[in-house]
Amino acid sequence: MKKFQSNNHEKIRRLIMLSIWVIILIGLPLWWKTTEIYRAQLPFAEIEEWSKKREKLDIKFSTHFSLFIATNVLEGNNNLDFKNLDVRLKESITSKYNFIYSKHDVINTSKSIQFPVKFKIKEWNEWKDVLKEDFNLGQLNFTSKNGKYAFYILPGNNENQKTKVLVGNQRQAIVQIEQIEHWNIDFIEKTISNIIFNLFLPEQIATKKFILEPSTEANVELDSMRTMKYSPMYQVTFSLMNGDPSSLLVNWDIDQTVNKYLKPFVDKISVISNLIVESQIQHYARLTFEPQQKKITENINYNINNNDNDKYFYLTPDLLPHFINAAEWKLASAVSSYPTLNFILYVPSLEQSPLYIQDSKENIIKNNAFLIPRWGGVVINNPDRSTGIHNFTSEELKSVMSIFIMQLRGLLGVQDFWVEAGSGLDSSITIEFTSPQNTAITMWELDSLVRRRIAENIVATILTLKSLSQLVAEIPNMVVLDHIQTEVLLALDSLKKSCTSLQEEQYEIALQHAKKAIERAESAFFDPTMVSMLYFPDEHKYAIYMPLFVPISVPLIVALLREIKEFRENKKKKN
Amino acid sequence: MKRLERKEWMDFDDNNNNNNNNNKSTLPHYNYNYYPYDEKFKETLIIKPLSDGKLLTHFQFSVKLLKKNNKEGSFKHYNYFPRAIGQIVQSYNARELHLTFTQGKWNYEDWGYPIVPSAGTGVELWAWLRKDGKLDKNWKSLTNALAGLFCASLNFIDDTITVQPKLSFKPEGSYNASELFDNAELRSGSLPHENVCTENLTPWIKLLPCKSRSGIASLLNGHKLYDSNFHSMSIHVRPFCEDPECINQQLEILQTVSTVVDPVRVSGKRDWSLSQVFGRQLSNACPLAEESNLEIILPENGDYKINPEANPDNNNIVTRRTPDVSGNNEKIAVYDLKKAQLVNSDLSMTWNEDQFDYDLNHTKPLVFAHRYFTGYGQERGGIKVNIFNKSPNISIPIIYYDVIPWYLKLYLYTLKVQINDQDVNSDTDNPIKELYYQPAVDRFRPNVIEAKIILSPNSLTTLSINFDKVFLKYTEHPPDANRGFDIGSAVISTISLNNLNDLNLTTFRDCLSLNNNNNNNNLEKEEGGIRIGCLHFPIRIYTETLLVSLPTPDFSMPYNVITLTCTVIALFFGSMFNLMTRNFVALSDNNSVNNDSVDNNSVDNNSVKDSVNNNGVNNNIVVEEKIDKIE
To answer: B233: which strand partners?
Structure first.
C-alpha cells in the first residue's frame, strides 16, 4: 500500500514537472516569435550571386561597323578583294585590345566585360559626288542606333598629304586615303583598325576599370574625380554673384541664354540624366578672403578696362578651393534632393576688380574660369562699370555659357573624343572632328557615355544591393519592411532586364533598366526605415525579463537536476 | 584649365540672335532710379511710440515678382525673390503661404492693433494649397521644407495639429473671381511651444536681397531684437493683381519683423535713438530697393522733438489713414533713405519730460479678448474667453476660432455664452450666429471651434466650455512632461472700424454666407469693383496661449511595474511549484510520526498541521521537507 502510494506521488510529481517544462518549451518559441523584429525576406542568395558574378560579369558591348568602300578607284583592276577584310579587321582589333589589356594588371586578370566588334563591308558607288562637295558629311547615311557606325573610305587625289579622317557628329566617319599607292587591302585594314582601336580604347579602359575596382580611391582617374556621381536627375543652378550692388547693378538675360545655348544639350543628354535648370542672382556675394593685387605691367593687355588705377587683383590656384563662400551664398536647393551642379558667374566688387585667375606660372588665364570637381564651375567677369548698371545680354553670355557647358560636359562624364583619340594614332593619319551643332555633344560622345553609364549603373546596383544585404545581416535589430523587399526585387528584376537588353544590343533600353535598377536599389538602401531600432536594445530586454526568468528558472532547474540525480540513484539501486 | 580653352567645338547657331540687344543701348547713364529688373523691392522701417511708453519697430520688406513668362505662372529664374521660397511655393503648389514666428504677447489694450497681424506665441503656419490630388502630401512636405529652411520644428505639424479652418484665415492675396474659391484648400497649424531665436532669424535675413549688409536690414541685430517685450517675424507669400481684370498676376513676398522695446525700462523716459534701440546706425539704403523709407508715426499729442527733423516743406510729413485706429488721420514723418536724408546721423526722438507718466486714459482698441483656464485638479477643467467690445454704439461682428488639442476632451453641451455676466437663454439673444465644431479624434485630429459672433455695443461676451483631461500613454509625453502642454492662441478675426463704417451689417452677413456656397456672382454684384473676395476681416486678435498640465506619470514607473509584476509572478510560481512537487512531512522531536497520517495529508500544509494536531503532538513541531524517503 505504502509503496504504491509513494510511486503514485512520484508519478504525479514527475507529470507536473514534465508539463511545466513542456509549457515552457512551447512558450519559448512563441515568446521569441512575438518579440521578434519584423524582417521581410530579402533575396540574399540572388544578391550574393550577382556580387560574385560582378567580376566575371557577362556583359558584351558589341559595336557594328559598316565599311563603305569606294568602288572603281583604280583603272583596270576594278575592285579590291574585300572578302576577308571583315575577319582580318576583327582579328587585328581584338589582338590590339588584348595587347593593351595585358599591360594593365587589373584588367588583364578578368574577362568580365567584352567589346566585340563586327564588320560589314559594302560597296560604295556614289563616292565621287561626296568628293566634289568637299566632304559634306550630312549627305552620308548613318544609323540611328547606338553601337552601329558607318565608315566611308574613299581615295584622295593629293599625293603629298597624309590620310585624313573626319569624324562626323552623327554616327559616321569618312576616311580619305590620299596616296593612291596605298589604296590596297592591307593599308585599309591597318588604317581602319588603327582608327577604331584609338577611338574606342579610352572608353573601354575606363569602363573596365570601373567595373573591376569601382571603389578603390587610388585607382580613380582624374576624369572620374571630376565626374559627378550618377543620378537620373541633376539640379543645375546658374548664379550671378554680384560682389557689391552699391557700385554696380547687374542683371542677365539668363532665360533666353539658357533656351538658346543650353537647351539643345539638355534635350540630348536627357537620355541619360534629366537636368532641371534654374538661375538666381545674389547680391553682396563677398569672398571669404582678400585676393592678391598687382600692378599692371606692359605684357598683360587682356581686356583690362579699369582705367582709374593701374592694378589688378588675382587669384592663385591655391586660393581657388576657398573661392566658394558656402556659409553665405545660398546655393542649396530647398526642395530637391537631387545633386546640384552650380555654375557661378562672379562679378567682383569695385574694390576687388578687375579680378583674374593666375596659373602657377603667374600667367593670367584667358577665360578667367575654373572648374570645381563634382561641384560645378565658376567664371569671373569684370564688366564695364561706367554706367553703374550692367546687363549681360545673351550675346555676352554666349562665351560664358560655352565655358559652363564645357564644364557641364566634364561634370556629367562626357569624354572628350579628340583629346584621347588623337594621341594614339600613328603619324600617317590626321584626324578631325566635326563640331556638334548647338547640342555641344556628338553622337559618338553620347553613345560612349550611354555605354559607360550602363556598365556603371549595373555595377553600382550590384554594389548597393550587396551593401544592403550586408547591412541587414550585420544589424539584427533593424526592421526590414515589405516595401524594402519590393524595391530590392524590382531592382534585381531591372538588373536582369538591363543585362538581357545588352545582349540584344538595345543600349537605350538597357540604360533605362539600369537607371531604374540603381534608383530602386538606392531608394531601398537609403530608406528612412532602414535604421537600427534605438528604443528597445537587447540590454533592456534582459533587464526586463531578468526579474521574471531568473526566479522562475532557479527552482525549475534545481528540481530538474534533483529528479535526474534521483533517477540515477534509483537505477543504481535497481542494479 | 587647358581644356576650357578649347572652344572651337561649340558652334552655336546665331542666326536668330538679333533681339534684345537694344536693351543695352537704352541704359540710362548712372542713375539709381532706373532698375533693370522685373522684380521690385521695397523696404520700410516703421517706428511708433506706443501709449505705454514702449516703442514699436516694424521692418517690412516686400518683393514683387511679375509672373509673366508662361501660362502656368511658374518661374525658375530668380533675382530678388528668394529662390528657396520660390521653390517651396512652386513645388508644393501653394497659392498662399503665411508663416509667423512670435515670442511674447501683443498687448492689445495698451498697444492697439499691430501694423500687420501678429500671431500667438510660437510658430503659426497657414497656407492655401491648390488641389492637385496630393494636397496632404504637399502640406506635409511644405512643413518639412520650411522646417529645414528656418531651423524650426515645423515638421511637428502633423495630422493631430493640422486644421482646415472654415471661416478664419481667408486668402489675403488678390485673385480673380474664378480663382478664389474652387481650386484651393486651406491648411493651418501652430506650435505654441516653439521658441524663436537667432537660428530662425539668420535664414530669414538670408532671404532678403541685400541680406543685412545694407539698407534698413542692417539694423537687424539679434542681440537687441531678442532683448524686447515682444517680437514677431513673418513671411507672407501671396499673389497680387496688377490690373482690375487680374490678367497679370504678381507674386509678392512680404517679410516683416516687429519688436516692442521698452526705453522706459532703461532711462525712465520715452526717449530713444536708433543706436540705442538697435545698437547700430543706419548708413544707407539697400541699393537694390526701389523704395527705402523710414517712417515715424508721430504721437497725437506730447512735447517731443525728432532729430534730424523731418522737413514739412519737403513733403516729408504726411498724413494718412491707418487701418486700425478709429478713422483718425495719423501724422507720419517719412525719411527717404534713397535721398540720403539720414546718412550717418543717429535718428532720435526726445520728450520734454523728466519722467514718463503712464497715461491711464489712452484710447483702447474696440475689440480685444482674454482667455484663461478654469477649474482645478488633474481630471477636468474649462476654458473661458472674455471678448470685449468697447464701442459705445456699434455691434461688431467677429469670428472666433480656437483649436484645442485632442488630449482635452471638450463637451459641446457645456458651451455657455454670457453677455455682461448674464446668461443668454433665448435663441434671439444668442450672439453666436453660426457655429462650426469639429470634435477631436484621439491621436488623429484636434477639436476646432469656429463661431460667428456679433458683439453688442459696449459689452463683455464670455464663452466657456468644459473638458476632461486625457491620461496619455507614457511615450506620448514630451521630455519635459511636468512643464505641461501649450494650447495655442484663440484667434478673433474682426473688421476695422473704417471698414465697418463702409459696410452695414447686411452685407457682412452676406459676405459670410458666401463662404459656404461658392456663389461668386453674388459677391461681385454686392461689392461692385471688389474682386478680392471676403477680405473683410483684416484684423486678427490673438489671445494668450495656455499651459495645461495633464496627469503626469512617474516615468520610471513602467520598469518598476515590470519588475514588481515579474517578482510577484516568480514568487507565486515558485511557491506553487514547490507545493506541487514536494512532500511535506511533520516531524516531532520524539520521533512519533504517524506515517499514515503524513502520507494521507502530505500535499497540503494545513493538513500537515491538522494531522499533527490530530495526533496530539503539540510541542516542537518541525515541518521538514521530505523527498521520498518513505521506505
So the answer is: B101, B257
Quote the strand ranges of A85-129, DSSP E: 113-114, 117-124
d(CA B23, CA A257): 15
Question: In the predicted model, is pLDDT for residue A154 greater than 90?
Answer: no
Does A418 fall in a domain? no
CB-CB contact of A521 with A491 (8 Å) = yes
Does A261 lie in the same domain as A384? Answer: yes
Please check whether residues B411 and B489 belong to one and the same domain. Answer: yes
- Which pTM was predicted? 0.82
Q: Which of A535, A495, A489 is nearest to A511 (CA)?
A: A495
Which residues span the domain enclosing A385?
A: 228-412
Cβ atoms of residues B46 and B40 within 8 Å: no
Task: Give the end of a domain, one of B351, B378, B399.
Answer: B351
Q: Any alpha helices (H) in B314-443, and if so which ranges?
A: none
Contact at CB, B566 and A547, closer than 8 angstroms: yes
Nearest to B5 among A367, A436, A437 (CB): A367
Cα distances from B210 to residues A9, A242, A247, B494, in angstroms, run 95, 11, 13, 36
B544 found inside a domain: yes
What's the whole-number average pLDDT of chain B? 77
Q: What average pLDDT does this structure show over B520-543?
A: 50
- When scoring B83, B557, B571, B631 by the number of chain A Cβ atoms within 10 A, the one with the most, hence best to mutate, is B83
Interface mutation target, options A4, A314, A548, chain B, most CBs of B under 10 Å: A548
Statement to judge: residues A110 and A204 lie in one domain:
yes
Q: What is the largest CA-CA distance in chain A?
A: 132
**pLDDT confidence band for A116 (50 / 70 / 90):** confident
Indicate whether B389 and B413 sit together in one domain: yes
What is the C-alpha separation between A478 and A114, in angstroms, rounded?
40
pLDDT confidence tier of residue B314, bands split at 50, 70 and 90: low
**Contact assignment for B78 to A280 by CB distance below 8 Å:** yes
Of all residues in chain A, what percent carry a pLDDT higher than 70? 83
Q: What is the pLDDT of residue B388?
A: 93
pLDDT, tens digit, 9 for 90 and up, residues A484-543: 999 999 999 999 999 888 888 888 899 999 999 999 999 999 988 887 766 667 777 777
d(CA A549, CA A31): 12
Question: Looking at the 3D structure of chain B, how many domains does it have?
Answer: 2
Q: Are B234 and B98 in contact (CB under 8 A)?
A: yes
* B212, part of any domain: yes
Residue B575 has pLDDT above 50, yes or no: yes
Question: Do A368 and A513 reside in the same domain of the chain?
Answer: no
Classify residue A360: in a domain, yes or no: yes
Largest Cα–Cα distance in chain B? Answer: 131
B209, B288: one domain: yes
| DSSP code for A165 | E
Are B37 and A251 within 8 A, CB to CB? Answer: yes
Query: Checking phi first, is residue B377 left (phi over 0); if not, alpha (psi -120 to 50) or beta?
Result: left
Based on its alpha-carbon atoms, the radius of gyration of chain B, rounded to whole angstroms, reads 35
Residues of B in contact with A20 (CB under 8 A): 577
Q: pLDDT-derived band of residue A139, with 50, 70 and 90 as boundaries? A: low
Nearest-angstrom CA–CA distance, B182 and B511: 17
Same structural domain, A95 and A127? yes
Residue B544 belongs to domain with CATH number: 2.60.40.740
- Residues of chain A by 3-state class (helix, strand, coil), percent to 5: 50, 20, 35
Give the ipTM of the model, two decimals please.
0.82
Please check whether residue A71 lies inside any domain of the structure: yes
In terms of residue numbers, what domain contains B432?
367-503+535-554
Residue A344 reports pLDDT greater than 80: yes
Optimal mutation site among A11, A15, A335, interface B, most CBs of chain B within 10 A: A335
Q: How far apart are alpha carbons A425 and A417 in whole angstroms?
A: 13
Among all residues of chain B, which has the CA nearest to that of A367?
B5
